[in-house]
Design brief:
CATH architecture of the largest domain in chain B: Roll
Strand order of the largest sheet of chain A: 1-2-3-5-4
Radius of gyration of chain A: 13 Å
Helix content of chain A: under 10%
Shape of chain B: globular
Oligomer: heterodimer
Strand content of chain B: 25-35%
Number of helices of chain B: 12
Number of domains of chain B: 2
Number of strands of chain B: 21
CATH class of the largest domain in chain B: Mainly Beta
Number of strands of chain A: 5
Structural class of chain B: alpha+beta
Strand content of chain A: 35-45%
Distance between the termini of chain A: 31 Å
Structural class of chain A: mainly beta
Helix content of chain B: 25-40%
Radius of gyration of chain B: 23 Å
Distance between the termini of chain B: 37 Å
Order of helices and strands of chain A: EEEEEH
Chain lengths: 96, 476
């Protein structure tokens, strides 16, 4: 079974185009550890590329886009981003 | 007699038909949430899950423990059918007689102790409660314990906690929430970590009090003692000096370090919507977990009314507002934070209304610390029971003039979870408020006021009795 993740995005269009983007991924591997969060720099593709992990995109309020994508993780990032508490997380990610 | 622990309370709920055990397997991932939401929307018993997917038999979950008035009355050791107004007044009476907690050497929550590398929060069935939530929520029905660095005052609050991984989780508690105030104003300026303890499954009144809005510096533990009529037994944490209820099911000890933040949210909230966006929020790094044998994990499933917080707020916040209004000398006869209104609306009844009283009531509500979450105030006369939504709505539609009766207040501070705020307003906490004056204008001739037509008001007593007898003879 291929690895699956989900991510939350304000404007999913900026995830595409073959460029590297910073994201927080939730690991959807079934079992007790499902939904573990990791910060990554990766490349998102739609339609999904064979051999890459499946990625589902959710809106900022959690609605899931039914079209699947894939993600190639370039590097895993530190657990935390620099940002003021309760500020805009998506802006903090873009700065990372 | 107050309940010693959650288990005693659950046994009583079961006896009263207010608890349903599920011995078949239930998935922590959405299914337990769906069962709970159904229970809340159709007034079913509190679900108790005895077999959780992916987890051994000694891990159990319960939700909706204080989701209706009956369960709150039982928790307060009162008759299950106690009316709302009586419950509010009784809460207020007991709150005014606080009882200090006592410290004990140990307690059931120390039956298992895991420290440092042994900690793994995923050994507990932390649920994904709603489709679309940002993650698994470990704190939705619990108490979060923190201490003021300078004064030593201990705060019990209830703030949502999203699990990040086996050893960390987030917290939503911006100032003026007490936890946020302590972290930002006391610990952060000195770059000190703030100890935190999250307590799941303590006896029902302690959790109830964690959701009670009291002023900064007032001890929820003392109030819990007053409500119980007996002191709460507290025990010291393993890795800090914080004290936690000794009979709790699970105690998670950790700390918040200034500048340590991760994304948290969105989450289906008490407003009835999943609306709060993901944002960086402080992280609690876990240092120890202690728990009872066969621990019971407690959670709430917020959403459209009702849910636990709406029900609890309708008692404790109503009482706090009532007390506030009375302390200002206003001729108030009742106050009720409307449970169907997601904490956003309160109905207040007044006697001997005078010109401008509705505005005075509204501004007292908004000047209270917890008034930020209640932007709509409905003021009725005392022939209306503020706890009766049907009567309140009738008064709004028949006595509140659309022009002079609805009073909008622009440029007010907003609570960012309110769903009608735009993204810009939410970001800058810009809001508005309104009060509905449902009293007859004072300059109307009293002799010509419209007369309400109800069974109790438009028939002589003897005719009412006669009518009731006739109905009874037909079995009604």
């Amino acid at each position: 079974m291929p690895q699956e993740y989900e991510t939350f995005a304000r404007d999913s269009a900026h995830l595409f185009g073959g460029k590297e983007v910073v994201m927080t991924l939730r690991d959807l591997t079934p079992g007790r550890r499902k939904y573990r969060g990791i910060n990554v720099r990766g490349v998102v593709s739609r339609p999904p590329r064979p051999g890459e992990a499946v990625l589902w995109i959710r809106s900022v309020v959690g609605n899931r886009d039914p079209a699947p994508c894939s993600v190639r993780i370039v590097e895993e990032l530190p657990e935390t981003f620099q940002g003021l508490p309760y500020s805009d997380f998506f802006e903090a990610m873009q700065r990372a | 007699m107050p309940f010693k622990d959650l288990r005693e309370f659950l046994a009583r709920l079961e006896k009263e038909g207010e608890l349903q055990k599920f011995d078949e397997e239930v998935d922590w991932n959405l299914e337990a949430g769906a069962i709970s939401r159904r229970a809340l929307e159709t007034d079913l018993p509190a679900p108790f899950f005895e077999k959780i997917k992916d987890y051994p038999k000694d891990r159990r979950m319960v939700s909706c423990v204080l989701a209706n008035l009956k369960r709150i009355a039982i928790a307060m050791d009162m008759a299950p059918d106690t009316p709302m107004r009586e419950l509010i007044e009784e809460y207020l009476r007991r709150q005014k007689k606080p009882v200090k907690p006592v410290t004990v050497k140990t307690g059931p929550c120390k039956e298992n102790v895991l420290i440092g590398d042994e900690v793994d929060l995923l050994k507990f069935p932390v649920p994904v409660i709603h489709e679309g939530d940002g993650g698994r929520y470990i704190g939705t029905w619990h108490l979060t314990v923190t201490r003021d660095l300078n004064t030593g005052w201990t705060n019990w609050g209830m703030y949502r906690h999203m699990l990040h991984d086996a050893k960390s989780f987030g917290v939503l508690a911006p100032a003026p929430k007490h936890l946020g105030t302590m972290a930002d104003q006391k610990y952060a300026p000195q770059n000190l970590p703030m100890p935190v303890a999250v307590v799941l499954g303590s006896e029902p009144i302690t959790t109830f009090c964690a959701a009670t809005p009291v002023p900064y510096g007032v001890s929820e533990a003392d109030i819990a003692g007053g409500l119980r009529g007996e002191p709460v037994e507290l025990v010291k944490c393993e890795t800090s000096d914080l004290l936690v209820p000794a009979h709790s099911e699970i105690v998670i000890e950790g700390e918040i370090t200034p500048g340590d933040e991760r994304d948290e949210g969105p989450f289906g909230e008490y407003t009835g919507y999943r609306s709060g966006l993901a944002s960086p929020k402080p992280v609690i790094r876990v240092k120890a977990v202690t728990f009872r044998n066969d621990p019971i994990f407690t959670f709430s499933c917020p959403g459209v009314p009702l849910d636990d917080s709406a029900s609890v707020f309708s008692v404790n916040k109503s009482a706090q507002f009532l007390d506030e209004l009375r302390s200002k000398g206003l001729p108030v006869t009742g106050a009720y934070l409307i449970v169907e209104g997601a904490s956003h609306a309160i109905a207040v009844s007044v006697k001997n209304a005078y010109y401008g009283i509705a505005g005075e009531v509204a501004h007292v509500i908004w000047s209270a610390r917890h008034g930020l979450l209640t932007p709509s105030v409905i003021v009725v006369e005392d022939d209306v029971d503020p706890c009766n939504l049907q009567q309140v709505f009738h008064a709004m539609m028949t006595k509140c003039h659309p022009g002079r009766g609805i009073n909008k207040i622009e440029h007010a501070t907003a609570w960012p979870l309110i769903p009608w705020l735009s993204e810009h307003e939410r970001k800058h906490r810009m809001g508005a408020r309104v009060y509905y004056d449902c009293t007859w204008p004072v300059d109307w001739d009293r002799a010509e006021l419209p007369v309400r037509q109800s069974f109790a008001e438009c028939y002589p007593k003897e005719i009412q009795e006669k009518a009731l007898r006739k109905w009874r003879s037909h079995g009604h």
